[in-house]
Amino acid sequence: MRRAARVDDNHAEIVATLRAAGATVQSLAAVGGGVPDLLIGWKGANLLMEVKRTNKWALTAAQATWHFGWRGDVVVVTHAGEALEELRRWRGPR
Q: How is domain 11-89 classified at the CATH fold level?
């Protein structure tokens, strides 16, 4: 049986900040298997975000494998300001 997904302390603040900026946000934290924590809809496209607690973050083995194999955009953020900066900088599908 899979245990309940643990989310980092900054998860809720990041979600609230992105939503306040006009993005739609779906938490994927319960999916597991290395899948990033957040699916974000922004300007007609989707972005994935991995939420980590500190600037000294490290991906788990499952996350590294998933991120390496994904053929789309995934960013790693540690706080709400960084998440908002990544959202505004992201240009969508290229």
A: Trna Endonuclease; Chain: A, domain 1 (3.40.1350)
